[in-house]
């Protein structure tokens, strides 16, 4: 087992009276793909936000390489080499897909990057040198994102998800948080994205993959973390997770089938 690059220790978070996450602990090693699954409201996105720094825990810690990770998303990106995608893609529609990928990679700070982009006039901002622009093209092509010189506003939701993944991969992250990257993708998009995620993990990146599609996650992950009602109810090999009583209870016990 590789050293844990990312670990969550007893994370707890409430929103007002709603307990979103309670005492959640798990780890992701270098080069490991860990799938985080669970039905609607299980707490998956809250976990990703706590790791990414969009939310702060009420208690518990996120550690990167054994060091507590704190502060803003941009600080975490710089300190821990953390890159993420969002459940609802965050892009600047007035720029091309390629420029979105490059600016995201350069800035490593989505919020200030988007503030900059929001006021940018297309053509005035032409970020990155030739090498970076070409690398963006290669990453996008591997993902199956082919229309990267079109405006982001003209892309489909599936393409925007791939754009976000490309932007994350261009940062050569040590930790990649991928929130629902497969949602809305056709079969060829799923294949390209799966291959790219495996490639980035093979390079040593710790990948936390959150998705509703349990079958895809199980086919890719080294381990699966199953959440329900804000707590981790199973952490282990995908085959064991799929066969577990916890999985049956979470997805079938209540009559809810969420995949
Ligand atoms: N900003 C918020 N304010 C209030 N409640 C929230 C907020 N974000 C999440 N919650 C609540 O916290 C709980 C966990 O939500 P979360 O989005 O983390 O779950 P999830 O597993 O990601 O669900 P989904 O798969 O539907 O995205 C839910 O009950 C949700 O309604």
From TrEMBL:
GO cellular component, one term: plasma membrane
Record carries keyword Transport: yes
Domain annotation ABC transporter: ranges: 6-254
Keywords (A to Z) from UniProt: ATP-binding, Nucleotide-binding, Transport
Name of the molecule in the record: ABC transporter ATP-binding protein
PROSITE patterns: ABC_TRANSPORTER_2
InterPro entries in the record: AAA+_ATPase, ABC_AA/LPS_Transport, ABC_transporter-like_ATP-bd, P-loop_NTPase
GO molecular-function term, one example from the UniProt record: L-phenylalanine transmembrane transporter activity
Pfam families: ABC_tran
GO biological process: D-alanine transmembrane transport; L-alanine transport; L-isoleucine import across plasma membrane; L-valine import across plasma membrane
